[in-house]
Amino acid sequence: MNIDVIVHPKLQHYGIATANGEAMIAWYHKVLGMTPNFRFTAPGGAQAGPPFSATFVSNDEVHHRIVFFDLPELAEDSEKLRLPRVQHVAFEYQTLDDLLGTYARLKGLNILPVMAVDEGLQTGIYYNDPDQNSVELNVNNYGNEWTATEHMRTALSSSERPRRMFVDPEKMYLARKAGASPWELHERAMAGEFAPEKAYDRRTLL
Question: What is the Cα Rg of the chain in Å?
Fold first, then answer.
């Protein structure tokens, strides 16, 4: 048994407390394909605390990736963005086509992003779930984790090039449909060609 060296576990799942359980479950199913695998309800009481239900969802072979704890007594917090919190969670696609195709599919469901950005090493599109938690969908621009890490260590510290460029995913989607390669889209994004017509309100994230 190793007691001297840090063992690096993988992130398996996280839990979200909500008063909006059904809407959250439906949103994560539409956006990420999360499907409930198990659900239970605790009636609560003097010793057990408030009543709640817990729904365990996953979109892969792991039994659960997210747990929604539905607590009807929770109140919305208008000061949420001013308080310490988990700022966002991210989900990675294998290809840019998967990311842009998901953008187009969600647009058809009237689920629209709040921000999109090419960060050099990756391209990310950000959404807010029904509780206004930030969810990032991204793709590695290099298709290789080691190269993306090297980019973060070197290119991001250089003042000779922009660190990131905000983009309009609709423009990228149309350019991809017109035949531009994923790498060409990245280069054009960093050149500012896909800049949004209206600046994003980053306060929705920060």
Answer: 20
Q: What is the DSSP string of 172-206?
A: HHHHHHTT--HHHHHHHHHTTTT--SS---GGGT-
pTM of the model: 0.92
**Topology (CATH level 3) of domain 14-70:** 2,3-Dihydroxybiphenyl 1,2-Dioxygenase; domain 1 (3.10.180)
Cα 35 from Cα 65, distance rounded (Å)? 10
* Residue 56 phi, psi dihedral angles, 5° rounding: -105, 120
**What are the angstrom distances between the C-alpha of 79 and each of 18, 21, 93?**
16, 21, 32
Distance CA 52, CA 69 (A): 7
Give 82-104 pLDDT, tens digit per residue: 888 899 999 999 999 999 999 99
